[in-house]
Amino acid sequence: MTTPAAVESDLGWALGTVMRTYLRTTAGALVEVPGGPRGYQVLTACLRDEPPTQLALARRLGLDRTVMTHLLDNLERAGLVERRADPADRRARRIVATPAGGTLLAELNGRLARVEDTVLAALDPAERQTLRVLLSRAAVAGCPSADVCTVAREMQEAGQLDGC
């Protein structure tokens, strides 16, 4: 028989439960962005730094190039991103968020903040911040590929991941 203490000490169970709740809740919050969470990640990456190339963006997000192509096609049809020729390499395309993409991203960020409030309701603000810091640190340290986590590592090194 499993005891409550055994369940509470099982990291896999806790992470899995929180993740399933988060994914289920975010699905509704991201319903209008093509590609759902992946589309959100693309918009975020395009607005955070210099517009990434399509290949660099696929690597950063850990997506197959063909999946990235279809995702960008859908985001472009929705008027949220544009592909622009890279002035340094005409074979490459830079992915740029449109003003509509920026507006939608701001709205989505507000929705996701409310999702976090719901998912982490059992924690006080200080505990939520501690959880974010510790999970960010563990995620960056455990990245399987430098390409997938380049942005997180750079943010960590720049002190932009609070407490890391």
Query: What would CATH call the class of the largest domain?
Result: Mainly Alpha
Name the helix and strand elements from N-terminus to C-terminus, one letter apiece: HHHHHEEHHH
From the 3D structure, determine the CATH topology of the largest domain: Arc Repressor Mutant, subunit A
Task: Say how many strands there are.
Answer: 2
Shape assignment = globular
Binned, the helix content reads 55-70%
Q: Report the sheet with the most strands, covering strand number, pairing sense and barrel closure.
A: 2 strands, antiparallel
Low-confidence stretches: 160-164
The number of helices is 8
Round the mean pLDDT to the nearest integer and report it.
84
Termini Cα gap: 39 Å
CATH superfamily of the largest domain: Winged helix-like DNA-binding domain superfamily/Winged helix DNA-binding domain
Q: Tell me the domain tally.
A: 2
Spatial order of strands in the largest sheet: 1-2
Rg is 18 Å
Please report which band the strand proportion falls in: under 5%, 5-15%, 15-25%, 25-35%, 35-45% or over 45%.
5-15%
Report the structural category.
Answer: mainly alpha
Give me the CATH architecture of the largest domain, please: Orthogonal Bundle
Key terms for this structure?
164 residues, mainly alpha, Arc Repressor Mutant, subunit A, two-stranded antiparallel ribbon, 63% helix, 9% strand
Summarize this structure briefly:
The protein is 63% helix and 9% strand.
